[in-house]
Amino acid sequence: LRAMLSTGAPLAPRQYDYVYNNIKQHIQLASIAGGTDIISCFSGSVAEVPVHRGQLQYRNLGMAVYAYDDNGKEVYDTDGELVCVKPFPSMPIYFGNDPDGAKYRKAYFDKYDGVWSHGDFVTIDSVTGGLIMNGRSDGTLNPGGVRFGSAEIYNVMDSFSNKVTDSLCVGQKLKDDERVVLFVKMADGQKFTEELMKEIKVTIRSKLTARHVPAVILETTDIPYTINGKKVEVAVKKIVSGEKVGSSGALRNPEALDLYRNIPQLKF
Length: 268
Description:
Order of helices and strands: EHEEEEEEHEEHEEHEH
Helix content: 10-25%
Radius of gyration: 19 Å
Number of strands: 12
Structural class: alpha+beta
């Protein structure tokens, strides 16, 4: 076994440890990221550079990928919007049933004029050149004007894997602000308690910052996933914010969305 590739969701640092400690020490572990629409990857495996724990190795050939801040400036070592500043070989050039190109431009070029914005939140390491995927930017958490990706919370929640089998972190809109809500699915035989909530908050505060600490932590019995295994954050964010949600045909377990409707603790 020479290489192992992973996609669909960010590969947590803990999972890098598992592969190198339990499968093979000398192996190229490559977390890759791109999109079905581009039939390609923006970043992924490069045999000539080292693997760094928790990072995608490098930007792919032909992909002029950078992280932009809200003002369209390149940023490193901090969260930013994943952009591709030059055309690339597999780039879609139009949509069907979109004669004037309005839907196409809105999908990719609405945020930064003339620059492809893919809708992902990313950090590019200025030293290694590696990338850390932090989740979809349309699902970005923004409490008090401080933006961060849900993947940061999930990485911390990995340390609770003996008690919590899965989690979902979304922002709930509250007039001119939003609060972070964390849903946890308990492991068999484990109970959701006040002590566990406190432990989760303290751990997130210590490993990240006080700004990352969820305002509300609730138990759930199921978490919605797409057919290709991605957590459905945006739809849940809309539900808890009192917004309408579109078709759920692309979900593996669409019935799970009903668990997030009319939650008393989230009334506002």
